[in-house]
Design brief:
single chain, Aspartate Aminotransferase, domain 1, 391 residues, globular, 2 domains, 11 helices, four-stranded antiparallel sheet
């Protein structure tokens, strides 16, 4: 079978990585890197100073995007996983207690397990209800004197459900407990205000709905929250000392920064600012996800696990087809219909344990800003055919 070209693919895996990127984002990233692709903060010559200024402007944009007061507390990382590791390894100490949920991605579950096994933290995981949401009261019931941190996703990468972060954040602040939010799925879809929502740390990635390239993300810290460095090395400042600098962002940034990634993230944020309606009620992606949900919900043999997309979700529709293994459904969608989706356990095994889909996995559709109504109509028609064949 001849492999389709990227131009012929209906790409519905934007929850993994947004694709394609806006042409203006790619152009600006390349232009800036071509002009200023030197090491920022590593020299006093004009090019290095200009590169450092562009990095600082990117920090300011990220801080403004998340309503964080101090751009120096924007820490660049490789992705949300890297940022979550920086936060978890830098905040939790032996004897500390953490609270998370069964909705989490392995980027939270594995670091927590690592810290439990290696330094002796403890943690509890709160389940979710039939609508895919965590009851804030179930979190507060688990607070202990030694509880140091609540860490949870803002939106589920399997179900698309948005959690009651502001209510949970308020309860955490009253008890002096830090709240760390994984915004890999929500940033770019749902407005995030760290001050209003009482969030002390945000982990984000650039390659999803922020429209940036792969390999860039970060951690945004509220004033007063100190994170120990878990990775040390050259920073370009205080080079005479063997101790890691205490000031932010150098405290948590060692080694040469991913300059093209930062430039691309900055351009992506500029792009989003021009299309701000995409994060409001009735966004294009939500409308397409609703169209997909409505189109497949009555197909015999299709079982949808995510709620109908709306103002309290991100644009994700996750389902199974009869007893088919999800990877087989994905292969048929790709090979026969040129439709790209995500299948399997989505790096969130506890969600699938709760849903009862560990053996089959599930098929996740996630439309993006460049998908069309025709794309969704073709996806619905394809699912009808696959379900009919599977009888």
């Amino acid at each position: 079978m001849e492999r389709q070209t990227e131009d012929s693919v209906i790409y519905l895996d934007n929850a993994a990585t947004s694709f394609p990127k806006p042409p203006e984002v790619l152009q600006k990233m390349v232009q800036d890197y071509a002009r200023f692709g030197v090491s920022p903060g590593r020299g006093s010559y004009d090019l290095a100073v200009s590169a450092a200024e562009l990095v600082w402007q990117a920090r300011k944009k990220v801080a403004a995007f998340f309503h964080a007061p101090d751009p120096s507390r924007v820490i660049f990382a490789s992705n949300a996983t890297d940022a979550l590791n920086k936060a978890l390894l830098g905040l939790l100490e032996p004897g500390d207690h953490a609270i998370s949920t069964r909705l989490e991605h392995n980027s939270v579950l594995r670091p927590l397990f690592f810290l439990k096994e290696n330094i002796g933290i403890t943690y509890d995981l709160v389940s979710f209800d039939g609508s895919g949401r965590v009851d804030p009261d179930e979190i507060t019931k688990l607070f202990r004197p030694e509880t140091r941190l609540v860490v949870m996703n803002h939106a589920s990468n399997v179900l698309g459900t948005v959690q009651a972060v502001e209510e949970i954040g308020r309860a955490c602040r009253e008890r002096g407990i830090a709240l760390l939010i994984d915004t890999a799925q929500s940033a770019g879809h749902i407005p995030i205000d760290m001050e209003k929502m009482h969030i002390q740390a945000v982990a984000f990635t650039g390659h999803k709905s922020l429209m940036g390239p792969a390999g860039i993300g970060g951690l945004v810290l509220a004033p007063g929250l100190d994170v120990k460095p878990s990775f040390t090395g050259g920073t370009g400042v205080e080079s005479h000392s063997l101790k890691q600098p205490a000031d932010y962002p150098h405290r948590l940034e060692s080694g040469t920064l991913n300059l093209p990634g930062i430039f691309g993230l900055s351009a992506g944020l500029d792009y989003l600012a021009k299309v701000q309606e995409n994060v409001e009620e009735g966004s294009h992606e939500i409308r397409l996800a609703q169209m997909l949900y409505d189109g497949i919900k009555d197909i015999p043999g299709v079982n949808i696990f995510s709620p109908r997309p709306g103002t309290d979700t991100v644009p994700i529709v996750t389902c199974t087809v009869r007893e088919m293994v999800s990877s087989d459904v994905g292969d048929i969608l790709d090979g026969d219909f040129q439709i790209a989706v995500r299948t399997g356990l989505h790096c969130a095994p506890l969600v699938h344990e709760t849903l009862g889909t560990v053996k089959t996995g599930a098929v996740r559709f996630s439309p993006g800003p460049f998908n069309t109504d025709e794309d969704i109509m073709q996806a619905v028609a394809a699912m009808e055919q696959i379900a009919m064949r599977a009888k």
